[in-house]
Structure formats: structure tokens, C-alpha cells
Here is the input.
Amino acid sequence: MSKLVLKNVSRRYGTFEAVADFSLELKKGEFVSLLGPSGCGKTTTLRMIAGFAPPSTGTIEMDGQQISAPSGVVPPERRRMSMIFQSYAIWPNMTVGENVGFGLQVRKMSRAEIDRRVDAILDVVQMRNLKGRYPSELSGGQQQRVALARAIVVEPEVLLLDEPLSNLDANLREEMRFEIRRLHDEFKITTVYVTHDQSEAMVTSDRIVVMNKGRIEQVDAPHVLYGRPRSRFVAGFIGRTNFLEGLRNGSDVRFDGFTAPSGAVEGANGTGELLYSLRPQAVGLSAQKPSGPGLAVEAEITDRAYLGEYWDYQARPLGGAKPIRVSTAPTSVFEVGSHVWLEIDPAAMVRVE
Amino acid sequence: MAVAATSSETPEAPVPRVAGRWDATWLLWIAIIAILLILVVSPFVYLVLTSFQAEKTGDFTLSNYATAYGRARYIDALFNSLQLGAWAALLAGVFAVPLAWGVARTDMPGRGLTRMLVLATFITPPYTGAVAWILLAGPNAGWLNRFYMFATGAEAGPFNIYSFTGLVVVIALYSFPYIFIFTTAALELVSSEMEDAANILGAGTWRTMRRVTLPLALPAILGGLIICFLEAIALFASPAMIAIPARFNVVTTQLYQFFGNPVRVEVAAAYAMPLLGVTVLLILVQRLITSRKGFATLTGKGGERRPIRLGRWRWAMFGYAMFVASLSVFLPYVFLVQSSFAKAWGRGFSFDNLTLRNFNFVLFEHATAAQSVINSFLYAAAAATAAVLITLGIAYIVTRRLVPFAEILGFLCLAPFVIPGVVLAIGFYAAYAPPPLSLYGTALILILAFTTRFLPIGYVNASAALRSLNPEMEEAVRVLGGSRVMALRRVVAPLLKRSLLGAWLLIFIPATRELSSAIFLYGPNTKVASVMIFDMSEEGNFEYLSALALILQVLTLPLLWIGQRALGRDFMLRRTAT
Here is the structure.
């Protein structure tokens, strides 16, 4: 049975529709991210799941029980969820131990039991030695760990995270991603994670919900999302890509500067104009004409940038107007203006809406 | 819509039911709203109603207005008040603006000292200042006159406190801190870069001050002048001590006479209307001036500020600051102390004139003096506590938007700011003195009136404190299973402890000195220290009075110290109720 079900949920503020027709089912123990640019409605959705805001339409169910509807909501304190906030919301008037033990205290556990559980969870997040400290004496990363411990120790039915890493510096952010995933693997708590950072979502999640302007664009596992984006928005938001416009013409699809047989590219049986996404990594670049099975396209390097981990080239097909972006290993060096060959695998071209 | 289950249900309750948007904490909100109706709305409504009611029958009538404005001397009192306010505000501006500029923007020596002396002025109740100035500038016997006669050999001194000018000076001396507070706050936000920009285009120090700095601070200065004007026209004590012997009336003393035997509260209510109207109008004007968009620079961070170098003028500035301070602090306190330790204040500084008898008398022998000090502190403490709790609740409702139209509640909390103390007292008398409540003369009516009077200070502080608190702090409590009330108790209240203590002191300190509302509401057993001092001045017991006034001042010092420890040295001199 699904743990959490959102059915046609929407949320309006006056005439502005922050979330529209949002439906999603989470399996027990699943880790799902809501990913999108700021203002896409992901935090609003999370707050509706938490019970801080009622939906304007639609319902939310947990374990088959309705917990949110426009007519009323179970208040947050009776949902047995927990949440990690963007600001961490660590209470500065309580020590680390008191912060973490708060939820257990509310659940009226005995002093000894609270101590035992708090110590255990602080071991997990490697904060045991700081139990008596106050939050102002902790670094950002340590506060984050306290927030994690405080949310997990109550063994919530659902764990909600609202951009929990956005206030950390880059290195710590990377470390905490894996930490969050590790904790999830250890405790198997059904989790909804809100972020605008695609790599955070990809590292942590079983499935990612890509949102745009209050609507769901696509829900899929990270590798599917990257490999098979369904919309222009998803292809552009997750990773870098080339958008290629093709015109169907008999047995061929004509692109800017090259042509592909319509049997080779996806969905070419449609009519008129088609749009494809082609990842820069999926394009080969060589000085000689490639002998592989892909399409060989003669091109000229118009621009390049060296980023250490890879080269970012702009290669314009001869006879075309728009350059195609190509990523290559740092060792393959081509000068601007030199003639090269692109190798494009038609199967790597993904048709998008 | 289903009704909320009560919070006694444990968080482990197996079946979460869909609950409505009502929950138990609503009862608390409703209680707070009811309290606000009692404190603010009902006295105001009764004030207006009473002014249209016949004395015995309660029928609608306009005769109260006819009586109130039917005599030339009543009308004169109105104009006297307006003139008094205007002159006092202008003179206060002359005292305050140079001091504020010197302290905030220049390298004048003794800036910290000047701030301290302004604070000392600020915490001196107007009636204490007025008494001190009677000792200083009373005709013939006043110390300034005696020094003048001694120095020049003249037959009579030039000073007479019992005059319109005397009253203007005394009021200006003890209300200029308002302008000082407003002006320093504004000047401290003018960045040096703006002045540098004028300098680099060729303007000198004085020109820059005249053309750039002062115009930027002008709205604040005008705002301060308006507050001073309103303070002057609403003041009761100083006019009662000085204007009545000088044989002229102002609005507040006239109101006091309507309240004398027999109490004509209907006429008083009618007569209070212009005072109320002028206050409301001017507060609106003040808001308009200080919120003009062109001066938005004043609200941002001003960047770096360097003090302006005054060169040899710095000592002139310092001299002026000390001159003002000697008028408001040094001279008054020297002679208050002298009088409090003197057998007879007129006999001057000699050892055989020294005695502790005055302190002994007011503390231990006088029938009600010691009790009046205790009353003052008890009522002030009760009022400060009530005001802080009420305004915290309301600020919480408003900032978290818990009920529709919450802004109205915030507005009601701020409304007493535009009601002068005497007018408020008349409203309270009209609402709660008659049966069935018959609260006149009880401690309760004084506490309620004090609470109402200081609600704005509490509200401004509470809502500022709450706005600085991330709502996620409370949401974290709720998502872990705690109720809203638990969030308030375990997180909000502890985090706001400091600011709430500050708000409490900012109410408590002035409440211990409050006279203008107390004078209309006290009874034989509920006399407060300020009323006691006023009574003693009418009896001419200046030695006892000085002792009592000093006791009141000394008792305030530890509170000031606590406030400064908790909130920083300037906590009393910040813009609090604007």
C-alpha cells in the first residue's frame, strides 16, 4: 500500500495558483525529491504535506487515512511526521541534547528512554560529544546534523526536508548529501526532499518530481530523468543539453546542418517540426571522419572553454547556423577554427515536447 | 467541518482525524481580543457617549458642549494650551537638535556623558522637574534670584517661574529628550558618503550640514517637535503646579477643575474632545512626514560614518551641551538634594540646616507616603506585566496572521498612543466608575488605565521582537508533535525573554511616575507616589516632597541598570513608540 498519496492537490493564493493538480504516490520507505526552480510550488507542496497549509482542492492521505482536504486538515502536531527546515530551526535556547530529545519528551517517554535514544542518534550523526553545547556554539554543518538527529529520533512516519543544504558551503553540501542518503538507507523513513539543486536530488533520491510553475513536468528515477527527459523544461533543467529542431521530410528528418534517417530517430513518425535533446557528452569529436555507426557530421570549432574536468566546445556543422555543444575529455584538444567531425548517435537524441 | 480533537489526545493516536481550522488555542485569542475591547474600545466609546449624555438621566443632550465652551476663560484655556505646546516644542528643539547633531555626528568631547545626561533628563518626571524649578526660580526666594541679588545687589531677582514663560521653559527642559531621540536616530543613519559627496563638490562643513545632513534629518526633527507639542498640551503636573499659581488655565488644569467637586464628567468629556482631535490629527501628520518616500535613505543601513571634525568649535558644542544639562539635571538635582536634606530649604547650605528628618518622615511617619511608593511600584508592575502579555499575544496573532483582520487588533494596541493620559482617564472614569462595576478609586482601575496607556510601547516592542523570530522555530515544534501553545511556552517566550524584559522595563519605569491618568482615578487607599508628590506641592512641603521625589528616582536606578545590562546602554533612548 502507498504510504503517502496526493490526489489532484492544488493551492491558490488569491488568483495565483502556486500548485496545480499535483498527484503523487509514495511507497513506504521511498525517497522522493521535489525539484524545480524557485517559485515552482515545491515548498508549498511540502507545507501542505506537513499540514501547515490546507489544499485549495484535492486531498492528501497517509496510510489510507485522509489527512488534508480543503474542508480541514489534521494539524501538523498530530501527523507523526517530522521536518527539517531551511533555517534548521534549531532552538537556540536549548542544548543539542534538549533539541534532539524534544520530540521524545512530547511523546511522554521516560527520562532514561529519552537519554538512551538521544545518545544513540547522536552517535549516528557523530555529535555525541557535543550533546551539552548550545546551537550558537556549533558550525553550520553541526547544526544541520542536529536538525537531522532531531527529525529522525522520533521515528516519523514521513520525513520532510525543505532545502536543508542551501545554507551550507559547497564542500559541506556535497558531504551532507551522502549523509542524508546514508541515514535514509539506515532508517528507511519515507522521505520528501525539496531542493532546487539537481545534483542533490540525483544523489539522494529514488525518484525525482520535476516541477515547473506549480505543475509536475515529470516523475522518474534520476537516470531516467537525465537519459529520457520528456519535456524541454526537464531536459534543460537537469544537466546541460542541445536542443535540435528537426523537420520531417519523407524518409529523413532534416536538422540544422545535418540529416538523419527517420527510422533512426525516436518518434520521427510524427508530423511537421520535432524537437530533440542531445546531451553534449553523447556527441563524439574527432579530427578524422569517424568509422562508428553514428551519424558523421563535418563541423568547425567556433568557441571553446576549458573547465579542468572536461573541454566544452561549440562546434557548428558545416552548412548549419547554430553550433552544437560538445563535452570531451581534457586530453582532446582542438583549436578554434579547426575542422572536426562530430559523431552523433541517433538513439541518444531524445524527443521532447 | 469537523471539530478539532483536544490536545489531550496523544500524538500516537492511531487514527488522525481531519480537523477543522479551529483549535483550542482560539479560546486564548478570543480572550485577548475581549481584553482589548475592555481596555481600549470601551473607554473610548464611553468617553464619546458621555459627552452627549445629560448628567442624571443619561438622555441625549448637547448641553455639555454648551457648558464646556460657554465661557471665555474655558476657550482661553484651549488657546493657552496651543501656545504653550508650540513654544515648548520650539524651545525643546533649540535644546535638542544641536545636542543630537553634536552627539551623533561630530567629535564633540563628552558625547557619552551628554547621552547619559539626556537619559537622566528623560527619567526625571515632569513634576519633579517642575518642583526643582520652583526652588530655583520662585520669585524672590528662588535660588537663581537670590544669586542674582547677591551678585548685583539688586532689590529683586529677574526670574519668576510662575509665568507663561516659566512654564514653557520647564516643559521644554523635560520634553526635549524626545526630539533628541528622534534626531540622533535619523542622523545616525545618514552615511558619511552623502556628506563626502557634498564635500567633494566643494561644500564646507557648515554648508554640508545645512544643505545635506539637516534636510535628511528634518522629518525626524519635525516628528520629534510634534511629539513634544503633544506632550506639552497633554501634561497635567507642571501646569497644575505653575499655571494655577500664575493664574492662567490650560486644557488639562481646566479638565481637573471640571473633575473637582462636584465631578462633572460629562462636561469634562465634552471639553476633552479638542485635545483628542488635535492629538489624532498631529500624529497622522507626524506619520505622514516621517514616512515620506524621499527620505527612504533614513531606513537603510547608512554605510560608514565618520565624525565631523569641529576643530576649536568642539568645546563650544560641549559647553552648550553642559549648559542644557545644567538647566535640566545639575541645578535641579543639586537643589532637590539640598532641600531633601534641609530643615528648611530656604536656609541654604549650612551644617546646622542638615537633617535626615524628611526621609524619616516620608518613609516611616507619614500616613500614606511610603504606601504610595509601594502602590506605584505594585500598579506599575501589574500594568507592565499585563501590557507585555497582552501585546505579545496580539503581536503574535498579527504577525502570524492567525485570525482574519488581525491588523485591526494591532491598530487598537497602538491607538492609546493618540489618547492623552487625562483624556484616557476621563474615558475610564466614564466607563468603569458608575455601577455596576464601580471601580473608581480601586487599584484595578488604575492598573487597567496604566496598562492601556502603555499598550503602544509594549506592542511596538513585541512585534519587532516577533518579526525577528523565524516562524520555522515554531513549526519545528509543531511538526514534532507540540501544540501552538507549547511552541509559545517552550520556544517563543524563552527566545524573546530579553526583548520582553526590555519592553517590561520601558513600561514599568514611566508607569511608576504616571500622574496625568492617576490624578483622575485614584482613591484614598490607592494614592500613588506621583499623586502624593503633587499633593505635597499643593501644601508647599518642598522638603518632604524633594525627599520623596529622590526616593522615587533612586529606586529607578537599579531598573535602569538591569535594562542596560540586558539590552545595551541606549535602551531607554531608542525610538520606541513611533
Notes: Chain B is about 70% helix and 0% strand. Chain B has two domains: 72-346, 356-578. The interface with chain A takes residues 1-2, 4-5, 9-13, 15-21, 23, 470, 472-473, 475-483, 486, 490-491, 494-495 of chain B (CB under 8 Å).
